[in-house]
Design brief:
heterodimer, A: 230 residues, alpha/beta, 7-stranded mixed sheet, 7 strands, 43% helix, B: 120 residues, mainly alpha, 4 helices, 0% strand
């Protein structure tokens, strides 16, 4: 199976070397694609020095536009599996195997690494936890399936989904909405328990003001997706 | 002729002239000027014919007929800005696609260059 690990990175020159090393150690056969989302630091250079594939967007598109660029690359270059693995160091490369394993069992078209399926060392802030709780309740109700960690950006998708995402992917805060889109397109999502680290560098894109926008925007998008004709 | 009529006729005529002039100079594309043209023509017509303005005002319960001009102008502005929001959404989608294609093309150019350098 030809596998591409897509690493969206915005100003991650500090954490990127560690992330790439981690991926090399645990996934030696997979190709690594860093999508530099118009960073103002030397993210692209840091990636090129470590001899991975690098796509540099001419300006910042946001995580949705950056991930879609990765899916476009995967689709155009004939990959069977695409992994989303954040550039900030919070995901663990050793867990990719279990995501791919579930994907290859054929039970799901997209596998999401969930921090809340079993006890994990990851401790989000109270507000973040509240947001995740609301999203998971709404999604579980809307989709009729249990979703424990809808904002997780640690994912593996098969060819059908990467083709779908190459052509249609939500723009900002895409994680929650993409689960709904796939569900509506008749594709299956499954969660796998993973552990995550606390961030090793950079800053989270979620500030208090943005988190309110995030909440409203995502919930609106979820309900609009439900209203749109197939 | 009362002052309000002169003002409204002059105003809507100037708007119509400005729109036509922008189209003539190629500064405004026809597809984005249709709503402007239509609204300025309607406003001019209502300003000129006091009878129609008064009839419609009475019919919908507006006591001061020139207020109807504000209402009509307001509704057109709403439509025009809504139209612009839709246009901007389309443009930003195209803009995103262009950025993605440019980035992917740049990557494949660099890839080809590196391979050539390796062979040469």
């Amino acid at each position: 199976m030809k596998t591409l690990i897509i690493v969206p990175a915005y100003n991650e020159e500090e954490s990127l070397p560690g992330v790439i090393q981690d991926l090399r150690d645990h996934m030696p056969d997979a190709d690594i694609l860093v999508v530099d989302d118009g960073s103002r630091d030397h993210t692209a250079l840091a990636a090129k020095k470590r001899d991975v594939l690098v796509v540099s967007l001419p300006f910042n598109l946001g995580i949705g536009g950056a991930m879609q660029t990765g899916y476009l690359y995967a689709w155009k270059n004939g990959y069977d599996i695409a992994i989303q693995f954040d550039g900030d160091g919070q995901h663990k490369a050793e867990e990719i195997g279990s995501l791919i394993g579930t994907l290859e069992s054929g039970r799901a078209d997209m596998v999401v690494g969930s921090r809340f399926l079993r006890l994990s060392t990851y401790r989000p802030s109270f507000f973040r936890q509240l947001g995740i709780w609301i999203f998971s309740k709404v999604l579980s109700a809307v989709l009729g399936m249990k979703v424990t960690d809808p904002t997780s950006g640690f994912r593996a998708v098969n060819y059908n989904v990467l083709t779908f995402f190459a052509h249609m992917y939500p723009e900002d805060y895409p994680e929650v909405e993409s689960i709904v889109l796939l569900h509506r397109a008749g594709m299956r999502t499954e969660e796998v328990a993973v552990d995550m680290r606390n961030r090793t560098g950079g800053r989270s894109s979620i500030t208090p003001v943005r988190s309110v926008y995030y909440m409203v925007k995502v919930l609106l998008a979820v309900f609009i997706d439900l209203l749109k004709r197939k | 002729m009362d002052i309000i009529k002169i003002i409204s006729i002059t105003g809507s005529a100037l708007l119509l002239i400005a729109v036509l002039e922008l189209i003539r100079r190629g500064r405004l594309k026809e597809r984005y000027s249709l709503l402007w043209l239509f609204s300025s023509v309607v406003l001019l017509f209502l300003s000129l014919s006091r009878g129609v303005l008064e009839t419609i005002s009475k019919w919908i319960g507006i006591y001061y007929p020139p207020s109807l001009l504000f209402l009509v102008a307001f509704v057109f502005l709403l439509l025009i800005t809504l139209h612009f929001s839709a246009v901007i959404s389309g443009l930003s989608e195209k803009n995103k696609k262009l950025a993605q294609e440019v980035a992917l093309l740049q990557q494949s150019v660099e890839e080809v260059r590196r391979q050539r350098a390796g062979h040469g």
